[in-house]
Amino acid sequence: MGYTPEELAQNIRSRLQRNFGRTPETASPELRFRACAMAIFDLMGEVSQPAAKPDDKREVHYLSLEFLMGRSLMKNSFNLGCLEPLEKALTLLNLNLSDIAEEEPDAGLGNGGLGRLAACYLEAMTSLGVRATGYSLCYQFGIFVQRILDGEQVEQPDPWFDKGSVWLSTRADDAVKVSFGGNVSCRDENGRTHVSVDGDVKVLAVPLDMAVNGYGREETNKLRLWQAKSPPDDAIDMGQFSEGHYMKAIEREAMAGVINKVLYPNDNHLEGKMLRLRQQYFFVSATAQSIVRRHKRKHGNLQNFHRWNVIQINDTHPTLIIPELMRIFMDEEGMSWDRAWQIVQNCVAYTNHTILAEALEVWPNNLIEMLLPRIWMILCEINRRSLQMYWEAYHDEARVSQSAIIWDNQVHMANLCVYACFAINGVSALHSNIIKNDLFKHQASLWPNKFHNVTNGVDHRRWLAQINPRLHSFICDVTGDESYLSQPAKMELLAKQTGNTDLLKRLGTIKQDNKTDFAAFLQKTRGIKIDPASVFDVQVKRMHEYKRQLLNALHILYLYNQLKDNPKADFLPRTFIFGAKAAPGYYVAKRIIRLFHSISAHIAADPVMKSKLAVVFLENYSVSLAERLMPASEVSEQISTAGKEASGTGNMKFMINGALTVGTMDGANVEIAELVGPENVFIFGLLAEEVDQMRREGYSPLPYVAKNPELRRVLDMLSNGLSDGVDYSDIVNSLLIGGYEGPDPYFLMADFDAYCVCQKEAEAAYRDAEGWNRRSLVNIAKAGFFAADRSIAEYALNIWNVPLG
């Protein structure tokens, strides 16, 4: 499989000449990247998926509103086994692979862990031989590019598509139409209800396919991204145009295009809510039509649809595929309600990713009824039948209301998933217990066998071997070969070497070299200078109060005060590194970002802190930036309020690169701690059940502040403002007085002292270099469990009923 370096060089040269009229010497950096991408794309075409046959295995359809794919040039080259030939080919052309790779934008198809997980899973499915297609929207401007101006987050459009579309193939012949609004009429004829919709607005959904290759396999899967357009006969109103009303003439085309402009438009207003609902329905309707069309081509009819297809919905965003499938099966294919429902119930599964009320989507009845009148009718019938069943089972209004799909003029999407899907899974052992025994406890009492756990996993080929070649070589040397790339459980062999002092020293050298590289990268690309001799203590994740970046900030100010009081103390130099985007409408999250910049400036301006304490905020944190940071990180901050984080995947990526976790017993941290043992992780804070008990009993943060003068001192610093004069009394008031959620809803005050103690334990451990490296080796060895391959194998066996290989 693949080309020689000479063949690749010739292909790249030919692409530059044929497509752009340039030579390697005269081409711009962007054109060099495009030519390289085209050459790799050609190579991927030689190992494309064979045509499906009617007796082929069941196909998985993985629906996620996010697929955070990152950059594709290096990843595709790695999986194809041609990374080294590509580098040599470019050397023959007097070009540098690293420089060309930097020209590629991160694909703007996601935001956080949800999208990174989906990307990892699609790669793992391909590597394991699971026939699968991912589905999402093709966001023209991503979520946003984060710029920091005077410490404040400012959102700018992300123009990734201009360059990133080189990996996409338009499939215009697979386009479908999606209907919004209109008037629904029904008539009974020959025992069948015929449904028609008049006055609706149709939007054309055009698929753009991205090939996804697996490691060492000839088959590929694909990610299908939907682009919204007006149908050709409705793209322009010629009458309006002729009269000079040009904007009015193209209004429908513009409104259609808005659907896939950005990910997660601000929904703090009605227009934003309507756009989000349009996005979600456009996404699932196009996907459902595509799946049904393909199935009919292969198998002739839909009676066996559930035998050949399984649809996995990643969080509640794709939930409307349930009533949409019902609409297609009944209105277009003539099935009875009972038969259509039987098929839907046997082919759709749901992954829950949160217990946060704000993320368990609900939609106002009138919004769905207005935008999706036929879907509203189907939802009402599903709700009627479910309520009848729940009343018979519970005989209790409180239980019925908590399980209902439609209640209090709202549609509860998670409850629809639980009622309709044949399987529901959480994404860590703790989280799965919470959704079964608390969040959906009433439904679980009726259908206990529906509920499963599949702990998240990451693409270890990308997040270790590709981005950390030094550590990859280390693992290959210790285990004897590269077989861990396809058998991650073999990483366990590293644990036998914890007594080998030479290997521990080598591991420490690898980490230090990676730190030096990252420091040089920051200096070169961002003008930020950090000390590679200091501890790299890292917290990078979506900005949210429950993730408790604010707790980290309070601890940094505590350290500042300790050092200020005793400048000659034996202080372990630390660089705290943060990266996070806040949702555009999330005021508190934006204030916390502002606070980090105030703290950073305050510390940088104090000569006492020089070479001892520093805070760095990484603007516009992304997959490609994470690939630089993860190998260099030493302390992984996973400090969410216990019971709030479903799983996390950043914790796994840090772990697999040898960072040690400072964290709560939350999400997958629980399983990390169980695997590595308490001596190889730093755990602090309240347990989930303790948080719940304190909340029930009426938690007050004031006693914790009263008995801790150092905490009070830190809060006073925020209230009075730091050296930049910005007043953060609003943050202090939210902790001590509170709003609609009450004071300190995420228990920072209760966990502050334990966090400080835990940090001191981590500091003491770090001072013992050999002991730290031993802990690091154990973490790497045990991280094989968190490979996405293991997760996908569990889905395939326990939920999807599909074979591997």
Biggest sheet features: 10 strands, mixed
User: Regarding quaternary structure, how should these chains be classified?
Assistant: single chain
Mean pLDDT: 94
Q: Please indicate the percent range of residues in DSSP E strands (runs of 2 or more).
A: 5-15%
- What's the gyration radius in Å? 27 Å
Helix content: 40-55%
Protein architecture, described:
- The chain is of the alpha/beta class.
- It has 35 helices and 23 strands.
- The strands form five sheets. Strands 1, 2, 5, 6, 9, 10, 11, 12, 16 and 17 form a ten-stranded mixed sheet that branches. A six-stranded parallel sheet has the order 20-19-18-21-22-23, sandwiched between helices. The protein has a three-stranded antiparallel sheet with strand order 13-15-14.
- Mean pLDDT is 94; it is low at 50-54.
Features:
805 residues, alpha/beta, ten-stranded mixed β-sheet, six-stranded parallel β-sheet, 35 helices, 15% strand
